[in-house]
Amino acid sequence: MVTGNKSGACNALLLQGEGEHFNCSSLNGIISPGLEAAETATPGPFYCHLVTGRDCSTPKSQRQCVISIHQRFLSAAVVEVEVVVVVVVVVVVVVVVVVVVVVVVVYSSIVAVVVVVVVVVAVVVVVVVVIIVVVVVVVVVIVIVVVVVIVVVVVVVVVVVVVVVVVVVV
């Protein structure tokens, strides 16, 4: 079942018989697959051509298309994580600035200023460490997923070759 906006490209997918597994809502003119499609469906040549812009009539090019789809999902996930990190950093900076202003106004003494400076430095260090950890975790997850996709594709190819050889020999 195709959901979302049935744009011209989506209608073309349907006419080619390749639209039933894909979410046809478009984003910036790019037709994106549904999550289920990326995980389970085998994209046809027409869909692969929409995604990659290349001729996708061979099984190898269709496998590359599946990898490309997964990379698109990973890119979207990375952007979401980066947005969350930026929002957290902005909130922390605003809170620290407000605390500094309040402390300096209420307790205008050298000790208060020193305490505020120490707290600000500590908060900045914690925020930087959190950002580094988040970026490292995201990169590791991306590498793991890409490796898993490549391994699955290789295993499928080997199984197909073995089956073909067995059928030909028998």
TrEMBL record:
<protein>
    <recommendedName>
        <fullName>ABC transmembrane type-1 domain-containing protein</fullName>
    </recommendedName>
</protein>
<dbReference type="GO" id="GO:0055085">
    <property type="term" value="P:transmembrane transport"/>
</dbReference>
<dbReference type="GO" id="GO:0016020">
    <property type="term" value="C:membrane"/>
</dbReference>
<feature type="transmembrane region" description="Helical">
    <location>
        <begin position="142"/>
        <end position="169"/>
    </location>
</feature>
<keyword id="KW-0812">Transmembrane</keyword>
<feature type="transmembrane region" description="Helical">
    <location>
        <begin position="83"/>
        <end position="106"/>
    </location>
</feature>
<keyword id="KW-0472">Membrane</keyword>
<feature type="transmembrane region" description="Helical">
    <location>
        <begin position="113"/>
        <end position="136"/>
    </location>
</feature>
<dbReference type="InterPro" id="IPR000515">
    <property type="entry name" value="MetI-like"/>
</dbReference>
<feature type="domain" description="ABC transmembrane type-1">
    <location>
        <begin position="94"/>
        <end position="170"/>
    </location>
</feature>
<keyword id="KW-1133">Transmembrane helix</keyword>
